[in-house]
Amino acid sequence: MHVRIDQELCRGNGACVVAAPNVFDYDEGTDRGTVLMPDVPASEEANVRMAAMHCPTRALAVVEP
Asked: Is 63 exposed, middle or buried (0-12, 13-18, 19+ CB in 10 A)?
């Protein structure tokens, strides 16, 4: 699985960081989310799917292999 954040859609809500803190972080400089691990390990896949479902602006793009 691969994940990215569309920075134009992201509003820094933080839902991704709450759902998957090992994969996402909040960048105070841009007030946006950032991806720490674009290639998501299997142990984090469920958390990333949850983050994508709860993103209010649908800024997360999840690509399944």
From this structure: exposed
Residue 65: pLDDT band with limits 50, 70, 90? confident
Q: Answer yes or no: are the C-beta atoms of 15 and 51 closer than 8 Å.
A: yes
The DSSP symbol for 43 reads G
CATH assignment of 2-63, given 3.40.50.970, 3.40.50.2000, 3.30.70.20, 3.30.200.20? 3.30.70.20
Dump pLDDT digits (tens) for 27-42. Answer: 999 999 999 999 999 9
Rounded CA separation 21/33 (Å): 11
- E strand or H helix that includes residue 24: strand 24-27
Rounded to 5 degrees, φ, ψ at 48 are: -70, -40
